Write the structure tokens for this entry.
Amino acid sequence: MSFSPLIRQLIDSLRVLPGVGQKTAQRMALQLLERDRSGALRLAQTLTQAMEGVGHCQQCRTLSEETICHICQDTRRDDTLLCVVEGPMDVYAVEQTGFRGRYFVLKGHLSPLDGLGPEAIGIPQLLARIEQQGTFTEVILATNPTVEGEATAHYIAQLLTNKGLIASRIAHGMPLGGELELVDGGTLAHALAGRRPISI
Amino acid sequence: MSFSPLIRQLIDSLRVLPGVGQKTAQRMALQLLERDRSGALRLAQTLTQAMEGVGHCQQCRTLSEETICHICQDTRRDDTLLCVVEGPMDVYAVEQTGFRGRYFVLKGHLSPLDGLGPEAIGIPQLLARIEQQGTFTEVILATNPTVEGEATAHYIAQLLTNKGLIASRIAHGMPLGGELELVDGGTLAHALAGRRPISI
Ligand SMILES: [Zn+2]
Ligand SMILES: [Zn+2]
């Protein structure tokens, strides 16, 4: 190795970024040092501020530095529609389609083999949120179209149907096994429009 | 936009990283917030330490937090061979080939249209370094095989030949128009081995 200790540490810690391997981390480290130290210092500052300041919205559980996020605070939204997703990136993806209802963000999907049951992913909080709001007539289950996402949607649909609520599932306009956050907006818009009630 | 201000700032500042566009920056920001806040805080810390602590070696001008880098301090190196490159990433690339002489790092290449002449890229310091050391018998010009890199090598070769030194150029084992830091080690090793004296 021909890098000095501080540069080696920087390269190592850049690998925390998703999709960044050794070679990419090296180029990033040296380019920042050679060409944009002030940009790198700004990045260090926003990283610290965001990691320390961003929590989860108490109502929808998406990432937000406010107790109640700006989507939950928005009074012009449709209070009869709730869209349930696996993560914050999915909220962004669904927003891009023009959906203007409310959201609830699970912590991923049910995964019994990993010990992740209904409590671990926040299903009790979802039910509490629905009860507390009292205005939702339809709950759109927009978990990923994977085996686990389907199982999670079906599990929640059963609970909601028992309570007399309409549970719907986004249509399979997207490839099976794919991830919600990777699909293009048009496909996702079609999938939302083509949602169907779940019959148990 | 559906991200909160702190998250938006984080996404914006991640785009300082080379090769990172809007979509990649979004995924990075949310993945760090969801999955590895301690890794992100460590990254913030090493970014700050490196940007504030890393300077340039006074002898070879590569990036280093020490006044004299560990390559220049290494007494087992061949003091008759000096390898001149365009940037610190190139030092790393040449090291990987097994080269164990000395280095001098220019600030890029001559670029008259951008107003970058010999002083701007450090050629006077290169000549001073050669004179001060007094032991170099051959100077390998390992600038990139681009039009500007070739012109820079020829300019330096002329100065050195006038002083009675042997100036050599790495062989064109690499594709023309390519960049030194992107070529594989084997190709670069061949290019080093096949270097030839420059005849003016
Ligand atoms: Zn919210
Ligand atoms: Zn040095």
Notes: The radius of gyration of chain A is 20 Å. The beta strands of chain A are 55-56, 63-64, 81-85, 102-105, 138-141, 166-169, 196-197.
